[in-house]
């Protein structure tokens, strides 16, 4: 049994209740165990999931809560049996810090689907203590759930550890990464803009699908999408019917699926990545008539996450980020609620997390 979190002082920002307002918070982490890596946090991304969790919108929040699951830093201490890392290495931690490591999913590098997975924050660790995330000065994590951060990849590209792998995994698994394919991307936010970037590097044709024409120039001129569809325009949607090999749906609010299913070719695949609060209506008949697939995907396993980070470094794929100081975090969440960011906030923990 690993030692409890009473030995190492840590400092971060936490929410104390469902209002979700963050403020300075002193807490403790476990000492560095024999297979643990301790690292100083340099950057941590702000994910829309953090907003859901802070306000207990999924009814599973544990307070006080230190969010953050897109964490990049530098190793300061390693356990006696650590094999993959050394002091001074750049590292990253995403959504997971533990899993059972003996089930079929874990045996197949799918720790992200382990029933006993432990999330980086708002979880309960094996010693009974609450897990705290990356809005803090240090992290202590078992080396299995830590990835090497490539030297040529900017550390502020931390959202790759959630947004990046959430996109990369379904594109690869559902075979939507083949040159010449035509892929649709629904929503042009933190996930959507990464979908465009990865899909273009894979060599596919990309159509962005949005409720508003206002994002067309951004999608095509800045991100390199090939075309743009306004989902509320029946003529545009009808004109594109049966044209897409696959669709990556990143939207987290209630929206109709039938118009998207109609865009798919026979045997087309609709991958759902957003998590709306209420169930969506799924019309079955158009699935039957085209052998179409509606599926879901959730982050990625550790092997695939390392693969994604290495791929991003090789092809210079980085999220568009706005780096902000720690004391700006509550304002950042207010803006995130209004979708007022292009496209991800990243907290400059290393330079701005001050105890005073």
UniProtKB/TrEMBL annotation:
Necessary cofactors: Zn(2+)
Alphabetical UniProt keywords? Metal-binding, Oxidoreductase, Zinc
InterPro entries in UniProt:
ADH-like_C, ADH-like_N, ADH_Zn_CS, CAD-like, ER, GroES-like_sf, NAD(P)-bd_dom_sf
User: Which biological process terms from the Gene Ontology are attached to this UniProt entry?
Assistant: lignin biosynthetic process
Record-level Gene Ontology MF annotations:
cinnamyl-alcohol dehydrogenase activity; zinc ion binding
Gene3D superfamilies per UniProt: Medium-chain alcohol dehydrogenases, catalytic domain (3.90.180.10), NAD(P)-binding Rossmann-like Domain (3.40.50.720)
* Pfam families reported in the protein's UniProt record: ADH_N (PF08240), ADH_zinc_N (PF00107)
Domain of life, per the record? Eukaryota
Please list the residue ranges annotated as the Enoyl reductase (ER) domain. Answer: 20-347
Family assignment from sequence similarity: Belongs to the zinc-containing alcohol dehydrogenase family.
Report what the protein is called: Sinapyl alcohol dehydrogenase 2
Q: Whose protein is this, by species?
A: Solanum tuberosum
Organism lineage string: Eukaryota, Viridiplantae, Streptophyta, Embryophyta, Tracheophyta
């Amino acid at each position: 049994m690993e030692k409890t979190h009473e030995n190492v002082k840590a400092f971060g920002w936490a929410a104390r209740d469902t209002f979700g307002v963050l403020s300075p918070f002193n807490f403790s982490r476990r000492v560095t165990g024999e297979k643990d890596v301790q690292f100083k946090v340099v950057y941590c991304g702000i994910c829309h999931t953090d907003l859901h969790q802070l306000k207990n919108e999924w009814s599973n929040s544990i307070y006080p809560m230190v969010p953050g699951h897109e964490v990049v830093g530098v190793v300061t201490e390693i356990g006696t049996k650590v094999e993959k890392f050394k002091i001074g290495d750049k590292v990253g931690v995403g959504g997971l810090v533990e899993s059972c490591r003996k089930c079929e999913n874990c045996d197949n590098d799918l720790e992200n689907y382990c029933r006993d997975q432990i999330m980086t924050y708002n979880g309960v660790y094996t010693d009974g203590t609450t897990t705290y995330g990356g809005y803090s000065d240090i992290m202590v994590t078992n080396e299995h759930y830590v990835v090497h951060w490539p030297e040529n990849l900017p550390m502020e590209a931390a959202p790759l550890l959630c947004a990046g792998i959430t996109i990369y995994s379904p594109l690869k698994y559902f075979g939507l990464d083949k040159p010449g394919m035509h892929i649709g991307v629904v929503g042009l936010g933190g996930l959507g803009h990464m979908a465009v970037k990865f899909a273009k590097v894979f060599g596919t044709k990309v159509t962005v699908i949005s409720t508003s024409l206002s994002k067309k120039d951004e999608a095509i001129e800045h991100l390199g999408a090939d075309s743009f569809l306004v989902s509320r325009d029946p003529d545009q949607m009808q004109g594109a019917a049966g044209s897409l090999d696959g669709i990556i749906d990143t939207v987290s609010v209630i929206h109709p699926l039938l118009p998207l299913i109609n865009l798919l070719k026979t045997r087309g695949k609709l991958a759902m990545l957003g998590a709306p609060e209420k169930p969506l209506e799924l019309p079955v008949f158009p699935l039957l008539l085209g052998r179409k697939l509606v599926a879901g995907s959730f982050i990625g396993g550790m092997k695939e996450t390392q693969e994604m980070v290495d791929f991003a470094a090789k092809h210079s794929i980085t999220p568009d980020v706005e780096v902000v100081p720690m004391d700006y975090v509550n304002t950042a969440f207010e803006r995130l609620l209004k979708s007022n960011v292009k496209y991800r906030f990243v907290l400059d923990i290393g330079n701005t997390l001050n105890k005073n």
